[in-house]
């Protein structure tokens, strides 16, 4: 029987949603029921690859290598969270899961957390967006009934990607530039 996978950002939200949809069987990584599987992220499960992951020459910090501008940003699992990430990947690929609902926090960061997991999994299943206004049982039911196609929140996803990529670009390049400059100044002081 086809089921719907709902991914929340936090275990507590997943628990509330699971109660409402009748997913009563709690496992280590998800609540399961006949029609729904409800799982969770634990904040960010993925991060961008460090510069040396794109080019081993970038292991050394040199001004001549800046700016670092990857053609495509690559994701890698955050250490310590791989069990939950692997569980989500397996659920997203499960044959009995027909559709996916993004129930991560309503905002740019929640959208980013879900989209990174979804992209990393390689899943192509249809996705809907749950926008929770209230955590009461009635509020969750109303939000589930009004879930929207992910295309309706694509602008939010694009803004999240843009912010994450710009943070990486500025952080990696500025940190390296300042560190190299300050180190070279310190080396010149008699």
Question: How would you describe this structure to a colleague?
Answer:
- Helix content is 45%, strand content 18%.
- It contains 6 helices and 9 strands, in the order E-H-E-E-E-E-H-E-H-E-H-E-H-E-H.
- The strands form 2 sheets. The protein has a 7-stranded mixed beta sheet, sandwiched between helices. A two-stranded antiparallel ribbon has the order 5-6.
- The longest helix has 35 residues, at 154-188.
Task: Assess the beta-strand content as a share of residues.
Answer: 15-25%
How many helices? 6
- Look at the structure and give the mean pLDDT: 95
> Main sheet, how many strands, which sense, barrel?
7 strands, mixed
Tally the beta strands: 9
- Helix and strand content put the structural class at alpha/beta
Globally, the shape reads elongated
N to C succession of SSEs: EHEEEEHEHEHEHEH
